[in-house]
Amino acid sequence: MALMITDECINCDVCEPECPNGAISAGEEIYIIDPNLCTECVGHYDEPQCQQVCPVDCIPLDPEREESREQLMEKYHVITAA
């Protein structure tokens, strides 16, 4: 699954620089995650770095974007090959 940022986001800016895929950016009101770039840090780290640094715990799995670890690893290979 890709991750998503909920309305509880306080725009603290700590998650964006932690994303190794550049999937996090400032949205109109809160930060957003591009599901096409989010691999939950598979291929880079054991755990999603944005979740680790988020002070308000507002980055859950996106239930509309279910992906297996294998699919996330495939996405990682595509992203890093570009």
Keywords:
82 residues, alpha+beta, Alpha-Beta Plaits, two-stranded antiparallel sheet, 22% helix, 7% strand
Show the helix and strand layout.
Layout (H helix, E strand, L loop, with lengths): L23 E3 L4 E3 L15 H5 L15 H13 L1
Antiparallel strand pairs: 1-2
Assembly state of the chains shown: single chain
User: How would you write the strand order of the largest sheet?
Assistant: 1-2
As for the CATH topology, it is Alpha-Beta Plaits
* Number of helical elements: 2
Overall 3D form: globular
Q: How many strands, which pairing sense, and closed or not: the largest β-sheet?
A: 2 strands, antiparallel
Provide the number of structural domains: 1
The total count of strands amounts to 2
Chain-averaged pLDDT: 96
Order of helices and strands: EEHH
Distance between the termini: 21 Å
Rg calc: 12 Å
Organism: Billgrantia montanilacus
Protein name: Ferredoxin
GO molecular function, one term: metal ion binding
Keywords: 4Fe-4S, Electron transport, Iron, Iron-sulfur, Metal-binding, Repeat, Transport
